[in-house]
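Review this:
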Amino acid sequence: MRDSRKQGPWPRISHPWGRWRGHWRVAREVFFFVSTHTGTSLLVWLLVGIALALPASLMLVQTNLSRLAVDWGGGRASVSVYMELGALNTAELAAQLGRRAEVEAVALTSQDEALQEFTAYTGFGDALAGLTRNPLPASLRVTFVADAHADALEAVAALMREADGVADVVVERTWLERINAISRLANALGLVFGVLFGVGAALVTATTVRFAIDSQLDELKVMKLVGASDAQLRRPFLYFGALYGAGGGLVATMLVSLGLIVLEVPLLDLLGSFDQTLVLGGFDAAFVVTLVGLGSALGMAGAVLAVRQRLAGLDVM
């Protein structure tokens, strides 16, 4: 004779389709419950969305700062060498620099080309037409390889300062260094705030799920007494957490989008002063899917925490 207590009144579903039907039924019931309690759901989604929006925004800032550094200088430092008027060894210096291992490319701008560029950018062509001599020098722009060390940069600059016919040497790395430093800062802040606010989002979801468990505590006790497994007890609350987290991820996406709309005009003015156009990257379908997936994972983590505590309490009752 079989032991009915060992099997229990809750039949084990062995067919995969039966298990999926059980999950679908629970998910549908959870979705119906969440949609009928709109006030609580909107509040939880807003709290989780705010917690996810800040680190997501910082990661977006870091992505665009990295792209901006690449657009401004390939993400690399460079040296501009300005020759004296009438210097005849400009091409020789360019060839000498091009043979160095740390140098990737050397761009030579002759006096005539410098005058043409100056006229095109400033519109002072009529004023310069009356001059008997071109006042602009030839120049060299030296671009270094990606892994060039700062000592190599200074060595090239010192070599050019000692060369004949060189009037001035400008090491153009300050802005790139600042942009890269801000990018690293944004990345570090994004990680720190991501962890802190991620824990906050999980705790918000855990608190909400705990309230849902407490509201159904008597029903859960009865189900536990008649043989329901822990998996059957916690399944609907895991769906609660996933749905709350996914909704928070969507709210975070909308908050980030709203922030980009508000900042669009100031960013256009700022970049316009540097002759740059505004091309924001990173806010795409992958960003949205990642944010929603992360919110769902954090919501499930909070639900697991809440359910584990309450199920442990049911075992001792």
User: Anything to note?
Assistant: Residues 1-11, 13-18 have pLDDT under 50 and may be disordered. The beta strands are 78-83, 103-109, 139-144, 166-172.
